[in-house]
Task: inverse folding
């Protein structure tokens, strides 16, 4: 093989030798993180340099190609190991999993294979040429797709390395910041050198700067690690500081071997001191290894240890502090021993003196000396049953108050007075009493010789105050809920008018013959969403207690049996459902649909509270509140009640949440998992049935909702079923439509006209009177809103019936129905249609009323 002489070859060979020497130097320093990776990086750089030197020295194309391929052995290793070293040095060894290393190896292996087989595919280089214009022959080949993929991969790794070192630069302390700055600069050298070559802006046109830049970076890395001596203990003024300390100081390495100890520590080590350096601390002080294991990760923590025997026995405060590098690795530990023998002896003397004082006080209180006769009236004990017994053996203070009583007693024994403390007491018959206690010391010759206590029975006062507080809180809650309900009812009326108009027009438009399928689908969505809004309004009305009820005598037992069967089929198997009741009838005057809503809402809440399973119990009872008897809830009147309890064993409701559970839109569930109207609806429906509801809950144990409905002492009666007359279409009758909302008026008029009715309109009751006077003989039915300005629908029908007794009327309203339907019928209104409504429902009701005799 012919060679050409050039000074660059000598420079490259010399640099390769220096790189190999740095690898040997790094290999000798075993404590440096990433030691082996640095060695591999330096050796790979040397291979790269030697290959490039021999490529420059060669004069024929085959030789140059061969040495160029040898270079790639070093190139692919240097790129990958540079990043691996950065992971190790910055404390990210956990990222270097087997999977990560395999992924990092894919590109180097594939690139090396493509380089060695390039003649077959040309993915790395194109056809080679010799450049003879420079001072020496150089190999020139165009780059292929494989080269650019490898270059992109290499730059990605180098930029990742730079990013990690930049993080270290920002977050490190001063010493490590200097090193990080130098390492970051070293990483930028190969990035810059490769960029100059790839983009053709190399100032040394005939020389590849990439291998030189990587080697320079490797040398800078070696110099920075050992010149700055990271990981070494800097012995600054060691003799002046450590040796002069009165505390014992022992320095351990990461393997708990002693590397240094001061004079005090050498005295503690005794005869083992001369051989202590280099030994494990456990060989001299065996018990300390357990202490290091317990406290070695924490800064400045420890325990007391005892060293020496007999007169030489001393107590030391033993503390260990780890020394960590910038990434949190423990490199060494420092143990400090402080002699606390005198302090502990002084504390022991104080403890003994205090014990003697307490013993003397206990002897002074060894027996109850005197009691007033009123003790028998309050607690049931005769004075002679208690006099002479030690105070602590009386067992008259309730368990929950023992700690407070002990604290107050200690204060009195110390010479203080205690005034008006509330304690719970247990009477002889087991009943609970509440006493207001004051205590004072009896002092003789400057010493407490007895305790004088005065207790006053305040049981009734405290219970009355608690009952008053509970009543006030309940009244405030009901007042707040009533105000919200009144507001909700008003809002619901306006929304019902709007939603009714939307539904009517959506259904009218859907009947048009020229609509596309897409338009019909859109109208169906509009109608569906409007109905959902109507259902939400219905829940608000339930809370406001102004929704329309279809009440009838109802036995709750069959209803709850059916519900229990449904729950057995639908709830998860982890939830056990039970229905508990006596063989009796539980008849109330109620709307079955609304009570089903109450039960379903309570059951759903119970299910959601038992995500891991549990027990759901529904219990039916009959209770009777007698005159003079305290009812379950203060508002309940004398009489018979049906009690329904739904209890679960779920997570319970926190005390701070309980006062708000019946408020509309209040929910503790995640967004989108509940409207916050479930319990508000339950509260409204129960109250609308003249009932009451209560809740008891304990966090971690479950919740029980109990509601009470007035019992109905009559057998259940089958409700009347209305028969729907056919056909739905009108027969050309004339209707008088009265509605104060213009949009609703127009929508209803259009709807009725499509149903084959002639429609006369009026915007309020007075206008309707005038229209009726002109067309009284033609009008077959009045369709009127109930609530309007000037004259409402109910008053309008009463006035019209005075002149036309057989007039038929249907009420349409967006308000919750306050009046009973039977009372409305007495005024001449045969049926009521609630907004929003289906067109078919309105048509059927009008047809029913017109067809009725």
Result:
């Amino acid at each position: 093989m012919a060679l050409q002489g050039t000074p660059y070859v000598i420079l490259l060979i010399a640099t390769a030798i220096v790189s190999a020497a740095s690898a040997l130097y790094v290999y000798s320093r075993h404590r440096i993180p990433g030691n082996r990776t640095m060695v591999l990086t330096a050796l790979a750089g040397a291979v790269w340099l030697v290959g490039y030197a021999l490529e420059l020295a060669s004069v024929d194309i085959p030789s140059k190609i061969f040495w160029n391929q040898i270079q790639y052995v070093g190139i692919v290793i240097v790129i990958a190991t540079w990043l691996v070293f950065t992971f190790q040095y910055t404390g990210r060894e956990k990222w270097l999993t087997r999977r990560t290393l395999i992924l990092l190896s894919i590109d180097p292996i594939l690139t090396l294979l493509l380089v060695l087989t390039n003649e077959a595919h040309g993915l790395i280089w194109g056809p080679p040429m010799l450049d003879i214009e420079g001072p020496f022959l150089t190999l020139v080949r165009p780059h292929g797709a494989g080269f650019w993929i490898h270059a992109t991969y290499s730059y990605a790794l180098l930029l990742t390395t730079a990013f990690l070192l930049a993080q270290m630069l920002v977050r490190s302390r001063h010493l490590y910041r200097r090193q990080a700055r130098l390492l970051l600069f070293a990483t930028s050298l190969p990035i810059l050198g490769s960029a100059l070559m790839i983009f053709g802006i190399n100032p040394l046109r005939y020389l590849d700067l990439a291998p030189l830049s990587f080697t320079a970076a490797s040398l800078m890395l070696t110099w920075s690690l050992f010149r700055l001596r990271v990981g070494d203990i800097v012995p600054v003024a060691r003799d002046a500081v450590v040796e002069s300390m009165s505390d014992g100081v022992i320095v351990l390495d990461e393997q708990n071997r002693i590397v240094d100890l001061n004079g005090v520590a050498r005295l503690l080590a005794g005869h083992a001191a001369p051989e202590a350096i280099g030994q494990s601390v456990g060989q001299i002080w065996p018990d300390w290894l357990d202490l290091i294991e317990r406290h070695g990760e924490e800064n400045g923590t420890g325990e007391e240890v005892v060293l020496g025997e007999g007169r030489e026995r001393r107590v030391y405060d033993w503390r260990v502090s780890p020394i960590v590098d910038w990434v949190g690795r423990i490199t060494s530990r420092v143990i400090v021993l402080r002699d606390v023998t005198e302090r502990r002896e002084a504390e022991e003397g104080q403890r003994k003196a205090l014990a003697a004082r307490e013993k003397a006080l206990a002897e002074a209180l060894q027996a109850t000396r005197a009691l007033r006769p009123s003790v028998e009236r309050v607690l049931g004990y005769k004075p002679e049953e208690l006099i002479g017994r030690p105070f602590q053996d009386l067992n008259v203070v309730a368990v929950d108050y023992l700690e407070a009583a002990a604290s107050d007693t200690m204060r009195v024994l110390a010479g203080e007075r205690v005034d008006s403390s509330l304690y719970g007491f247990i009477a002889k018959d087991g009943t609970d009493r509440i006493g207001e206690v004051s205590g004072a010391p009896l002092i003789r010759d400057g010493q407490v010789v007895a305790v004088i206590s005065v207790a006053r029975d305040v049981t009734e006062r405290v219970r009355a105050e608690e009952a008053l507080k509970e009543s006030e809180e309940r009244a405030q809650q009901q007042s707040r809920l009533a105000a919200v309900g009144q507001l909700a009812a008003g809002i619901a009326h306006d929304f019902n008018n709007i939603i009714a108009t939307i539904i009517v027009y959506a259904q009218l438009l859907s009947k048009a013959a020229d609509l596309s399928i897409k338009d019909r689908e859109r109208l169906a969505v509009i109608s569906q969403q409007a109905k959902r809004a109507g259902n939400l309004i219905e829940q608000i009305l339930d809370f406001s207690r102004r929704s329309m009820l279809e009440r009838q005598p109802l036995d709750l037992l069959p209803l709850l049996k059916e519900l229990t069967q449904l729950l057995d089929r639908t709830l998860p198997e982890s939830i056990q459902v039970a229905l508990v009741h006596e063989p009796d009838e539980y008849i109330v005057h109620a709307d079955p649909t609304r009570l089903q809503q109450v039960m379903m809402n309570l059951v759903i809440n119970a299910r959601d509270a038992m995500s891991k399973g549990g027990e759901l119990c529904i219990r039916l009872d009959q209770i009777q509140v007698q005159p003079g008897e305290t009812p379950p809830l203060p508002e309940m009147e004398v009489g018979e009640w049906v009690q329904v309890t739904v209890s679960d064993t779920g997570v319970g409701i926190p005390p701070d949440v309980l006062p708000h559970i019946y408020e509309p839109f209040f929910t503790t569930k995640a967004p989108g998992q509940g409207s916050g109207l479930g319990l508000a609806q339950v509260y409204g429906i129960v109250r609308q049935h003249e009932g009451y509801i209560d809740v008891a809950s304990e966090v971690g144990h479950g919740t029980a909702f109990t509601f009470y409905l007035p019992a109905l002492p009559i057998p259940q009666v089958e409700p009347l079923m209305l028969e729907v007359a056919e056909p739905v279409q009108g027969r050309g009758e004339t209707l008088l439509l009265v509605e104060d909302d213009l949009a609703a008026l127009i929508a209803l008029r259009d709807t009725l006209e499509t149903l084959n009715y002639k429609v006369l309109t009026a915007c309020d009751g007075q206008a309707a009177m005038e229209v009726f006077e002109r067309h009284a003989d033609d009008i077959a039915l009045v369709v009127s809103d109930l609530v309007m300005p000037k004259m409402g629908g109910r008053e309008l029908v009463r006035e019209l019936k005075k002149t036309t007794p057989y007039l038929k009327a249907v009420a349409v309203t967006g308000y919750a129905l306050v009046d009973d339907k039977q009372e409305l019928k007495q005024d001449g209104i045969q049926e009521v249609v609630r907004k929003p409504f289906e067109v078919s429902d309105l048509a059927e009701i009008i047809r029913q009323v017109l067809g009725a005799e």
